[in-house]
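Still learning. Any example?
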Amino acid sequence: MANTPVVAVGPPDALGWRRVTINDRPAGQVRSMEALGKLIRGAGIAPGIEPHWIGGNCTIWPDRPWYRRIVGTLMVIGLLATACMLFVIGLKDTFGALTYSGRVTGIIFLLAAVLEIGAALAAFDYWHNRKVSYSGMVVLLGASVSIAVGLFMLLMQVIDGRRYTNYVPFWVIFTMLSVGAVCVLVRDRVWATIANPKRIAIGAIVSALLAIPNVTYTQIYVPYATSPLVNSSASFGKPSLNESRKSMYLPVHLYVKNSGQVPLYVLGSIYWIHGYPDLKKPDFTLLRDGEFIHPPGRELNPGEEFSSDEVIEVPYPGEFVRGKLTVQAEMYAIRKDRMTIVGDYERSGKNLDALKEKGMDQDPQGPQLSAEKGETYFRYQTGISNSNEILNATRGRQRITLWYVHKKPYPYIYAVVEPPGDRVGFDINDPNRNKKAIDRYGLAHVRSSMQQKPFEELMEMAKVQPSANESPTLPK
């Protein structure tokens, strides 16, 4: 009997492990009778020996392996899913956000992704053997970050998305998983295994208080704090008569300046020159229209100017001899700091015939035109990317479309921003039709000042020839 080894089985811990000693030397830990028998046989002890039970007999095996594996797996999946989302958004915004504050937010998301990966590793340890005493606290911090991120993305979806994206179910699921994880960890009082848990909690709260205002400031306040300012004018230059003196050449000067602090994309432009046969009657005739800012989609940075000069020929005496001529222009611009044109907008232009051949004339829905009157349109269209990846996730894909509608006697342009799958309603008389694009992207419909001159005044100017030392100039 003196050579018979003494096997002792200790009380179970929180995970159901029971420590086993042989002759007072640690031999391992087990969670079941089967594992205990395997350990004893592996130590070379003959079967049939009766262990010494401490803290419970052979029926006390509190381990619930399926519960432990399911809960641990769900925690790891939730934390890794959050880490993946944070990493993708953070990486894209760190190197591709349009603003400095957006890139700072990207760095914060990358750091949070590292924390989530660490929490996932800690969750594996916590639900397996708990070799690291503070693994539970790390999991608790990671789950808390997951809840904060999920709620933030859902809040952004509600405030700015206005249209549920495919990410919403994902955010809801992993937020609920994170809430469940926090409840389990709080019930287990994971902070009891480490010293000074209050300091760690205070550090986490301070970090959150620093990060949350920054993200809120960059995603909600900054996009609405500044407004674009564009000045535009259209004016007549000094006219001249042709050699036969039967018509007048009339120059037109068109001018645009970005007088604000916000860079812009000019999506499209149009100018009109109308003739009124009678000063007292509203009837008018379209003499000329066209685009004047080239190429469409060009950038207009703060302080940058653009001008164009056109010349039209007006018959003399003609039907306007007792009337007047008017000139005016307008354009659509959109903020460059809130979105990026991702396609070749300049070469995306297609006329109505080309669109009909490809079955794209109703994608999106175009204006109602009369083919009998020769009405048609030209359309520019391309995709856009938001100023940061957070907005790309909450808003989904977006597409910008601009129509140049040839409809006499008043051609016009019209721009909308909508998801690619939407059939766009076309109503230029609805002031709220573009409210969403105005709020999100600062879509601006800019109309220039209008100049009108009696035809007689223009003819008098044309008859006055410049001196030999003077050349005709266009008024500014």
User: Anything to note?
Assistant: The chain has four domains: 7-53, 65-224, 231-280+299-326+449-476, 339-441.
